[in-house]
Design brief:
By secondary structure, this protein is mainly α. It is built from three helices and three strands, in the order H-E-E-E-H-H. The protein has helices at about 5-20, 60-75, 85-95; strands at about 25, 30-35, 50. A three-stranded antiparallel β-sheet has the order 1-2-3, with no helix packed on it. It is flat and about 70 Å long.
Length: about 130
């Protein structure tokens, strides 16, 4: 997908986004707005609640664009076999084994572990009974 196809897709998404909000069905009893049609490009089905009054996060155009970018880049991802190793093995072998250092390259001195304080009344609690 080159830039002209991406621009056309973006334009189509914007048009569908506008029609989603203009053509929604407002339910006055439940105080929510419902999608009136299927919007495949927006990943929204007919009957999906898009507006509600309390504790509801409406769909955002940015999230939909992000999903399209991810689906666009899925073809570029190179999948390695589990025998060779993947991201988990890379993290275990490379990232965890790096020593922490300061900006000048000196290693950060490790701090000694603090001892726990002695418990009051030998760990029996705070009651003052004999």
């Amino acid at each position: 997908m080159d830039s002209s196809e991406w621009d056309e897709l973006l334009k189509g998404l914007k048009e569908r986004w506008k029609s989603l909000w203009q053509d929604r069905i407002d339910d006055k009893v439940r105080a929510e707005g419902v999608a009136s049609d299927d919007y495949d490009l927006l990943f929204i089905d007919q009957g999906t609640v898009i507006v509600a009054t309390r504790n509801y996060k409406p769909p955002s155009f940015g999230d939909i664009l992000e999903q399209h970018v991810i689906s666009r880049q899925l073809g570029r991802v190179i999948v390695t076999s589990p025998a060779v190793g993947g991201w988990g093995k890379f993290i275990r072998d490379v990232l965890r084994r790096q020593t922490k250092s300061t900006k000048r390259g000196r290693p950060i001195p490790s701090t000694p572990k603090k001892r726990k304080q002695q418990l009051k009344k030998g760990g029996r609690g705070w009651l003052h009974a004999n």
